[in-house]
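User: Need the bound-state model for zinc ion:
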Amino acid sequence: MAFITNCTTKGCRKEMQPYLNPLTNEVHCSECDAPIANIPVFTKNLMKTLGQVKKSAKVAFSIRCTKCKVEALPKISDTNKLVCVSCNSPLNISKIYENQVREVIKKGNQDL
Ligand SMILES: [Zn+2]
Ligand SMILES: [Zn+2]
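Assistant: Bound-state model below.
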């Protein structure tokens, strides 16, 4: 489950999972990085809950899903596996890298 919207910028208008900039509280297009207008506060709060927040560590630990091609920081599933935030497919990650990713997910949640 992720919040998906269409970019409001001319020339882009792509359907994507936007991200929230925690410093400005602005929502940005994940395709062209332009700010998206008219995002209600409750949607921003939902994005925080979902972890759709831009953080350098999150970007660094983004993993591209082989199923849906979404590149994002994975989430931890109910069965304690790292899965794609978009389609919930299990991701193939090496053990060492997986531990780092889990740390980033935990820290990211603490920051919110
Ligand atoms: Zn865009
Ligand atoms: Zn996926």
